[in-house]
Amino acid sequence: MTMWTSLDPAAVAVDPGGRATARLRVRNTGDTVEEYRLSVVGTPAGWARVEPDTLRLYPGSEGTAEISFAPPRSPDAPAGPAPYGIRVEPREHPGLRDVLEGQVTVAPFTEVRAELLPPSLVGRFRGRASVAVDNLGNTPLTASLTLRDETNRLTYDMAPNSVQIAPGRAAFAKLNIRPQHVRWTGRAEQHRITVAVRRSGDDTGLELIGIFDQRPVLPRWLLVAGSAMVTAAVAFVVLWLAFQPKVTTASGELQAGSSAQPVPQGAESPLPSAPPSAPPPPPANAPNPAGDGSGGGTGGGGGGGGDNQAPDGGPPVVPPPPNAPPAPKANAKSGPPWQMGYKPDDIVTFAQYRLATLGNSNPCQLKPGWTAGVIDKLTDTSLRCYQEHVMRDQKSSRELIKTDPYGTLGRATLASLWAQGIRPDDVKSGAKNYQVTQLNAAFWWASQAAISNDDLTRDRGFAETGIAYFKSGQKSSQPMVSDGALKDKIAQYQGQVGLPKTGVADSATIGKLVGGSVNQPGKPGR
């Protein structure tokens, strides 16, 4: 044996986000100069460090090294005791290496975040939403969900009303809301709802505010049009009765011999030929055959902010309502990812709205006539064009097709579509707008190396929010806030794609998202 080792103390305790240390002593008991390499093994190796990691000792001399433990305040450092080892390996005699065993205990902490997706519901007979609860602590938790209606005019079903969540995971509950009384006519009525999320053993909880916009069954325009038609019909009858001409005949005026004689077959003059039809006028949104040569690429500047504009410079023009999706074939596949022939999905509908609002000067804009929820021929052409522009854009990372082949709507393409139009100033800390919602959705798609059913439910909730945004003329009723949780997502993503972990969504980070840089299977991710 050429060395003697000691670890003091063998067991330490540390708080998440804090720091604790232990000391390693090594003595060279041989008769030659020896160099000892030191390393940490076991679960804490990801957040433990040895300084120095090499000791060079003369015969009979002794050296010390400090082992520091700094677990992050995240689910990556589970609460409780975790064994570890310090490997001491002599360079000249590697077969005589030794491993000193110790134990570090991480203190528990709890952090819960919840979201109502979407926060604004619209319906005549019912509204549907999802409640997402994230466990950002390092211990399992149980949370109860309750709903409060301030007007007492709603009934609801919450399933389940209690969820158990492992550290670093999310749970979802389905919420169905129904008004107690159906509004047949009149104005829309807004019901304010509050969903309370309370952790077991904690009286204080999170409150999520939402709106249920109850629309009348018969819209006002239909009543106005019906009243106008009834008024016009009554006026026509009155005028007809007032000005009806009177016809009088004298007795014996009609003679039997003066009755009309039948016209011989073929005696009439032939009907004139119909005039040639004029060609129909071109659609209002048909592209200019000559082209404007403007290109309109994607990437950091192509689709960002390039939403459709009215010809007179007015507010953005929302594409017309899409066609109803056809019934899927019995053997049709479900996404993700999505391609032609797959079953309809709201996530595909969001991508179609985003492609349809790239701008009239953008050659990849999705033209009217597409079918909602499925990748039809028009959508496939627009999608491939968009992907090709991203791969040519020098401002993006150009990594999209590493994950999504051309014509495939997958994680990289969806992250790119969500990130379109985001500027760093729009999503700085404390900002509250739709761009923050876009950034959250883009990070979810970019961070999910493997997508679970719960993750897909969250993604569809974001898609419904995006669809509502475009249908409302690109107005956000419940914008998200750029807070500490988003900063952690930004830093996590930056580490995955090789950027400095600043926690700030700068141009380089957004360029990575637009370019399709996403977490790959086998790498650490959300």
Detailed description of the structure:
The strands form five sheets. A five-stranded mixed beta sheet has the order 2-9-8-4-6, with no helix packed on it. A five-stranded mixed beta sheet has the order 11-18-17-13-15, with no helix packed on it. With 526 residues, the protein is an alpha+beta fold. A hairpin with a 7-residue loop joins strand 8 and strand 9.
Write the layout of secondary structure elements.
Blueprint: E1 3-8, E2 11-14, E3 20-28, E4 34-42, E5 48-51, E6 54-57, E7 62-69, E8 80-90, E9 98-106, E10 112-117, E11 120-123, E12 127-135, E13 141-149, E14 154-159, E15 162-165, E16 170-179, E17 189-199, E18 205-214, H1 220-242, H2 299-302, H3 346-356, H4 377-392, H5 411-419, E19 432-433, H6 434-447, H7 453-471, E20 480-481, H8 484-496, H9 507-514
Parallel strand pairs: 2-9, 11-18
Antiparallel strand pairs: 1-3, 3-7, 4-6, 4-8, 5-7, 8-9, 10-12, 12-16, 13-15, 13-17, 14-16, 17-18, 19-20
Helix pairs in contact: 3-7, 5-6, 6-7, 6-8
